[in-house]
Amino acid sequence: MHTITAGLVALSVVSLTAAQQVEWGQCGGINWTGPTTCVAGTVCTVLNPWYYQCLPGSTTPPPPPSTTSKPPTTTSKPPTTTSAPPPPPTTSSTAPPPPSGTGFVKTSGQKFMLNGAEYTVAGTNAYWLAQNSNADIDTAFADMAAAGLTTVRTWGFNDVTSPLTYGAYYQLWSNGVATFNTGAFGISRFDAVVASAKAHGIRLIVSLTNNWSDYGGMDVYVAQLNPGGTHDTFYTNPKTIAAFQNYIKNFVGRYANEPTIFGWELANEPRCGGSNGSPSAACDVAGSTINTWAKTISAYIKSIDPNHLVGLGDEGWFQLASPPTYPYQANVGIDFTKNLAISTLDFGTFHSYPESWGQGNNETLWGVDWITAHAAQQKAQNKPVLMEEFGVTVNQPSTYTLWWNTVLSSGLAGDLIWQAGSQLSTGPSPNDGYAVYPTGPVYPIMKSMASMLKARG
Ligand SMILES: *[C@@H]1O[C@H](CO)[C@@H](O)[C@H](O)[C@H]1NC(C)=O
Ligand SMILES: *[C@@H]1O[C@H](CO)[C@@H](O)[C@H](O)[C@H]1NC(C)=O
Ligand SMILES: *[C@@H]1O[C@H](CO)[C@@H](O)[C@H](O)[C@H]1NC(C)=O
Fold it and tell me: Where in the numbering of this chain does the CBM1 domain appear (predicted)?
């Protein structure tokens, strides 16, 4: 994400009338107007004031996954339940352990796996982590861990043309030469992010450059190595490709054996178009230019680091012959279906910002279809797909509830909200209109959904 989008029309009475709600479907909560009874074999369960859900079970509702389990009767024995024998010492498939500090996350079909157990991606974005003090980084991860999140996506880039004396930057550019920053405000700040994530049992998805000019990104490579070139020449110019690979060698190589890294991502939201105007005619807006680049760069990452997963980081545009709406048509240079087939990309990514994409009059239901369409590709190509950014600026609790519900019911591998925030020593973490904080209404829903996603498997 990049810009603050002004709130558009607050709208849409979502009317979902059906006699009985399906398993995993919503069955109540503030402002809910849909069905309030559940199909046989499921029970309408109050998870929080915003969200009641049809969970598997019969007459006795199962406890919500994280909060109300019965306390142990003595302090000398492990917790037991009254209705079942004590659990075996190893964990069951319905109650995965918190992420272990060892082992690399892998894929198996449509799932992520860690040390033989399923790994759930219930996550958030926090691009700003490395720019903060160690204490504030710890505060942020502590909040995320308390919400049950497993995975955090953050920026592994900041390209500058003059040195900073605060925060973190990793490449200093001068006259077409990039120097990897091993100084005080350099890669050691990212080491601190990794250390804190590890201490909190969280894994990181790390983007390696930016389509946008925030924190430098592709446009700095182009300005330094192909002056006057359009944004898209980042994907094709031999010098920019070599320079990006050199950066990958330094950054990715440093953490190649670090299990806290969930995976690398080629770029945040790659597109043909750039800040310096339209793309060149050479950039294929239907997707082949970025597809070729993604093959080259993902294969290069695998050659430096065979341990970690690799994703693209795109917004997930489709290229349909009869596009129902703008994000399904040839436009920005991304073909989600074609990119998902790249053998050196381990998982698919997409974002959902209907208000920014001309769907602000129908953002909630448009997003449901967008999630469903990507889940269908996950199944078709048997490769996990993440909704790794999403946001609306109006009706967040009800829209996110429906979207998360769609993630659960569609089988989509996981999601990462844009963006869970924290109260830092410097004030609230950055808010571009989408931030949700621990005291706000979205946070408890996010926490419930993390539990349910883990329970779904
Ligand atoms: C790509 O980046 C440029 C700025 O460098 C911006 O104009 C364009 O809209 C961006 N698109 C996306 C979605 O990242
Ligand atoms: C809103 O989006 C849904 C899902 O794509 C679609 O079925 C519906 O027709 C749309 N409604 C409007 C008013 O555009
Ligand atoms: C719930 O409904 C009330 C009254 O109609 C409205 O003011 C409020 O914004 C709604 N909340 C959400 C999250 O949609």
Answer: 19-55
